[in-house]
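// run 5 | inverse folding | seed 20
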């Protein structure tokens, strides 16, 4: 139960936070926006480690949450779908994402998300404005 991932984050805590966020992310991606996924079945053909996805994100945490939904559903046999049940009961935890340190310390929600796999980086070019 107190197992940690490679960055020292507790896996049970990561799953708990993901389960708490899942109703909101499912509503946004699966019900309100009705986002479509194509090609998620390819996740199952990839190796289990040493994979890097790069996102030029335009939103706060939506791109990370959407990728987690897509990967998790593909791994549980529902590729190209956004489902609540699979994401809630079997959250996909073998992922990490890079985020700016100043973003991850800016409030309670980012601090919670920091526990779900954030690798914080300090952007030195932003220090002086």
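// decoded
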């Amino acid at each position: 139960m107190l197992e940690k991932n490679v960055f020292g984050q507790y896996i049970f805590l990561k799953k708990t936070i993901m389960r708490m966020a899942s109703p909101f992310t499912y509503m946004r991606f699966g019900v309100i926006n009705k986002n479509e996924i194509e090609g998620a079945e390819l996740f199952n053909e990839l190796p289990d480690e040493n994979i890097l996805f790069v996102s030029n994100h335009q939103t706060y945490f939506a791109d990370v949450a959407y990728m987690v939904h897509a990967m998790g559903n593909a791994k549980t046999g529902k590729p190209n779908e956004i489902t609540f049940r699979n994401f809630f009961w079997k959250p996909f935890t073998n992922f990490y994402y890079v985020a700016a340190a100043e973003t991850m310390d800016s409030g309670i929600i980012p601090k919670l998300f920091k526990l779900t796999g954030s690798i914080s980086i300090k952007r030195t070019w932003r220090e002086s404005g």
